[in-house]
Write a structure and sequence with these properties.
Layout lengths: L1 H9 L9 E2 L2 E2 L13 H4 L7 E6 L10 E9 L9 E5 L15 H9 L2 E5 L23 H18 L7 E6 L1 H12 L4 E7 L6 E3 L2 H10 L1 H17 L3 H11 L10 H20 L4 H8 L7 H10 L11 H9 L9 H12 E3 L15 H12 L5 H15 L9 E6 L17 E6 L17 H22 L5 H11 L10 E2 L2 E2 L20 E6 L10 E9 L9 E5 L15 H9 L2 E5 L23 H18 L7 E6 L12 E5 L6 E3 L2 H10 L1 H17 L3 H11 L10 H18 L3 H11 L7 H8 L13 H8 L11 H13 E3 L15 H12 L5 H15 L9 E6 L17 E6 L17 H17 L2
Parallel strand pairs: 5-6, 5-7, 7-8, 8-11, 9-10, 11-12, 17-18, 17-19, 19-20, 20-23, 21-22, 23-24
Antiparallel strand pairs: 1-2, 3-4, 4-6, 13-14, 15-16, 16-18
Length: 949
């Protein structure tokens, strides 16, 4: 009981009892402050220490070393068969307070009869795997090993306490919030859902947004005064007399002479973090504002000094950066602050360095990212450099998805004044992955228990979390299937929402699924990955290099001698879901006794022929090569499985619908844009028709209104207010303006793919009571209603596309796809059509210039046009010389403007699905299908029957 009383007293004192270093409190509790225990909690039974034998290195089978990992269990509210609530402990000592009803998790455990559990993180508290903290020993301190610890612990506890069938929900705050989200992502067969509080999942090397939020939290006047104070410091540091005055103002020790740049930066860090600390935990912000904005308090620096000197008992403040570094070089195990371990993780995994590199930083420019990178080298050794840190960050983002994690069933609560929200998820990712902002709350504010005096923002956040916890448990009861395939179930449900959980980029969803969304699936079969050695370059006989191309085979319906149905995967990773009965191909495979196969496209998913995605290496990425891959794979599989004499039918959606090799007796080319076009202006024409004349005209008026406002500084100011744009948007950069227009356009297009979405757009755009057309446009494109301004910089569009690192699951698939548009297809969805509702704010030149900017000056409008002309000449455009093909299209799908819409001959049929969107025919039949979709499926079925005669 002593420890609880101690915690209570520490966290009632005004000065918080800790300092911030790199945004982390330097005590044993780390980022998340434990809940204050009420008297009833203080007399609750203290859980006894329990220990689990955890492996030191899960990924080295030859290493059998183990260590004791601490955990606590509270079963006081547990009802047999109830869920397990696991609080993931982060970079701190394990604290049993989170199992009590002083925490929201504890409250929920009581309400839902859950077993409450918390596990200490390796290398923190008492769970240290090595005898010291030398850099060599810290190699076992990684995110991956921490997540594996959680998995092994969950399996151990399930067996020990007979918890088979119980549903697990994981909770975590700050860094542990990251782990909660990533554990759900990596081990969905264990965690039904996660609550990731204040989780800075968007790992970044130079975290300029952190201090930007601090500036916003204290307000413009206060922020400007802090900036002036820092400018005063910079000026005083220029002369010996100035340094003397600075020492006097800030009560610095005589040893500070202003000559050591690291000491100066360390001073800036100490001063800045004093302010940040109060903002991060929303304590005393009003006092900061009052002090800094009171001119009677002296110069801005003198006011700034008053914030620093509160509670100071030392004769003077010693500023010695070297002493700070030396303290972190100490390899002795110490449970007090554990800053060495935490700093190591920042240097080797995610950085998140809170710098002053932003142009308008209120804290001057004395904390550049180089300051932090150099510390990593000084503390842990010369092998850690700025380059290795950046690579580590890139790897973390590539593995876990950054701000766009591929995850379902997660809640991301964030406080509105928490600086870490700058790299947190602030918008819903899909129907089951929710974000919620708690107004006027700081870091981890939602983790404390509900009280009768909670403001509406906290009540609403807790309601959402509770509802999601209920959903997670209800969700899993629906699926009693093999462990391996649960991964697929969760992944699919992430993409069944109305809004898709993605953004469009050049008309393509910017996630790993690309154009064709996988279906929602209930399936109890595990399909193993298989790989085929494919040639890198078929058209160079001297090049014998090969790469591993992934494929899946499902023979569950296959009858000897039956056909082979091949799903050609397009610009996305291959998924075994496409051979399941949730797809129309899977349905047909069952009917015709077919072998169902999926082949991954080169350069997408795991089938990458080259070590990186440099422009030089991308020369092997072409539709011609992809067709040759398909042909050679068919020959290989025919020989391997003795399929001689079996007939092949190929299926594909969108870009993959264009690829129908000559070995096939027939093809189903769903939503296939077979006509390449540099200026695909007709694309937005379809969206305009879908929305109707009145709605399109109102969008056009909004676009005109926006153009007018961009002509004057006063207009730009007004535009920023209407669209909630950041102050950095000045309307002077034509590419920034076009980027803004494009992103608003894509929001309309992506929502206009369904009748529900169209009705929503019309309802807002045609309602004059909402305001001007532009104000309505702002609402319909979701530009308003966020506490975070929209930062539209064209460079943000280009920079990720220039990244040549291979990322099989994330945004980097866009680099490959955009390359193909520059070298083969164009497909640029411009607003060049006369009377375009988007005016002429997105001309084709906006897209063609990007080819040169991303891939090099050899890409010009002329070279792109030649490439498109060659593609159409080679494949035939809208009049391909083919037989035995069905071209299904959806009437709401803008891509149908580039597809075959009329029968080409007696065996090459076109069918339009009224009210259908992109590739809607590819999903399995249901009783709710429209008559138009039923007719399309009937035609496809009949044609397949004809092909197989």
């Amino acid at each position: 009981m002593y420890s609880f009383v101690f915690i209570y007293n520490v966290y009632c004192v005004p000065d918080l009892g800790f300092k911030l270093f790199m945004g982390r409190p330097n005590d044993r509790h780390g980022f998340i402050r434990p809940p204050i225990l009420k008297p009833v909690d203080q007399f609750t039974r203290q859980p006894e220490d329990q220990w689990f034998e955890q492996r030191v290195d899960h990924f080295n089978k030859q290493d059998d070393k183990t260590f004791k990992q601490l955990y606590y269990i509270d079963d006081s509210h547990y009802k047999t068969g109830g869920p397990v609530f696991l609080m993931i402990s982060g970079e701190s000592e394990l604290d049993a307070a989170y199992l009590t009803t002083a925490s929201f998790m504890g409250q929920m455990a009581k309400k839902y009869g859950a077993l409450a559990v918390t596990l200490e993180h390796r290398y923190f508290g008492r769970s240290v795997p090595t005898p010291d903290l030398s850099t060599g020993n810290l190699k076992y301190l990684t995110i991956e090993l921490a997540l594996k610890d959680l998995e092994q612990f969950a399996l151990y506890l399930t067996k020990k306490l007979s918890l088979e069938g119980s549903k697990w929900v994981v909770f975590g705050g700050s860094y542990a919030g990251k782990l909660a989200s990533w554990f759900r992502q990596k081990y969905p067969h264990i965690a039904a859902g996660a609550v990731a509080s204040s989780a800075p999942v968007g790992s970044t090397y130079d975290c300029t947004g952190y201090l930007r939020v601090v500036g916003e939290a204290v307000g413009k006047e206060c922020s400007d005064n802090i900036r002036k104070a820092n400018l005063e410091i910079e000026n005083l540091l220029k002369t010996p007399e100035g340094v003397i005055q600075l020492r006097k103002t800030l009560n610095l020790c005589q040893s500070f002479d202003g000559k050591n740049i690291n000491d100066n930066r360390y001073l800036s860090s100490l001063l800045g973090m004093t302010v940040v600390m109060h903002v991060q935990y929303n304590t005393g912000v009003d006092k900061i504002v009052k002090t800094m904005n009171d001119p009677s308090g002296g110069t801005p620096l003198e006011r700034y000094a008053k914030l620093q000197l509160v509670g100071q008992t030392l004769d003077c403040v010693e500023v010695n950066h070297n002493k700070y570094v030396v303290s972190l070089q100490n390899t002795t195990i110490d449970r007090k602050g554990m800053m060495r371990q935490w700093t190591y993780m920042t240097c080797t995994e995610f950085a998140d360095f809170p710098t002053t590199d932003a142009p308008d930083s209120p804290f001057g420019h004395n904390l550049p990212v180089e300051y932090y990178a150099q510390q990593c080298t000084d503390i842990f050794g010369p092998q850690i450099t700025a380059q290795t840190i950046q690579r580590a960050v890139n790897q973390t983002v590539a593995t876990y998805g950054g701000l766009k994690p591929n995850v379902t069933n997660v809640v991301f609560p964030n406080g509105s004044v928490d600086p870490w929200k700058s790299i947190g998820v602030l918008n819903d990712l899909n129907n089951s992955t929710k974000a919620v902002i708690l107004e006027n709350y700081g870091h981890g504010g939602d983790m404390v228990a509900s009280t009768p005096t909670d403001p509406p923002t906290m009540i609403n956040a807790h309601k959402l979390i509770e509802q999601q916890i209920i959903n997670y448990n209800m969700f899993l009861k629906t699926y009693q299937i093999k462990r391996q395939i649960k991964v697929f179930v969760f992944v699919c449900n992430a993409y069944s929402e109305t809004n898709g959980g993605f953004k469009l980029f050049n008309g393509r969803p910017n996630d790993r699924y690309g154009f064709v969304r996988p279906p929602v699936i209930t399936w109890n079969q595990f399909i193993a990955e298989q790989f085929y050695d494919q040639k890198v370059d078929y058209f160079n006989k001297q090049d014998n290099r090969t790469f591993k191309q992934m494929y899946y085979v499902d023979d569950s319906h296959y009858k000897t001698g039956g056909p082979v149905f091949l799903m050609i995967s397009g610009e996305s990773f291959a998924s075994p879901i496409w051979v399941s009965n949730a797809t129309y191909m899977g349905e047909m495979a069952k009917k015709y006794g077919a072998l169902a196969v999926v082949l991954e496209h080169r350069y997408y998913g795991k089938s990458i022929p080259t070590p990186d995605l440099s422009t030089q290496n991308l020369k092997y990425l072409s539709s011609e090569m992809a067709l040759k891959d398909t042909e050679q794979f068919a020959l290989y599989l025919t020989k391997k499985l003795s399929l001689e004499g079996n007939k092949w039918v190929v299926f594909g959606g969108s870009y993959a619908g264009n690829l129908y090799p000559n070995i096939a007796v027939g093809a189903i080319a769903s939503s296939a844009p077979v006509r390449a076009a540099v200026d695909a202006m007709e694309f937005l024409g379809v969206t305009s028709e879908s929305l109707g004349k009145e709605c399109s005209e109102n969008i056009r008026k909004a676009s005109l209104e926006m153009n007018e406002l961009l002509k004057t500084p006063e207009g730009v100011t007004k535009l920023r207010k209407i669209l909630n744009l950041c102050d950095t948007f000045d309307g002077k950069n034509v590419n920034n303006n076009r980027f803004l227009a494009e992103q608003m356009m894509w929001t309309i297009v992506s929502n206009a793919l369904s009748k529900t979405g169209i009705d929503k757009i019309r309802g807002i755009m045609n309602d004059t009571s909402i305001g001007t057309p532009l104000e309505r446009y702002s609402k319909v494109t979701e530009m308003i209603g966020s506490s975070i301004c929209h930062d539209y910089h064209y460079s943000h569009r280009i920079a990720p596309l220039k990244n040549t690192t291979i990322d099989p699951m994330g945004f980097q698939l866009m680099r490959q796809w955009i390359y193909q548009t520059c070298t083969e297809f164009g497909y640029y969805q411009s607003s060049d059509l006369p009377n375009s509702p988007f005016e002429h704010n997105i001309p084709v030149e906006y897209y063609t210039q990007q080819c040169a900017q991303v891939y090099g000056p050899q890409f010009t409008p002329q070279s792109i046009q030649k490439a498109v002309d060659r593609t159409n000449a080679y494949y035939g455009g809208l009049k391909p010389n083919v037989t035995n093909v069905v071209f299904p299209n959806g009437s709401l799908d803008p891509w149908h403007s580039l597809s075959v819409l009329k029968d080409l001959n007696n065996s090459t049929k076109a069918v339009m699905i009224e009210g259908g969107d992109h590739c809607s025919d590819m999903w399995a039949s249901t009783s709710n299908d429209s008559e138009s979709l039923k007719n399309a499926h009937k035609l496809i079925d009949q044609q397949i029957g004809e092909y197989l005669k």
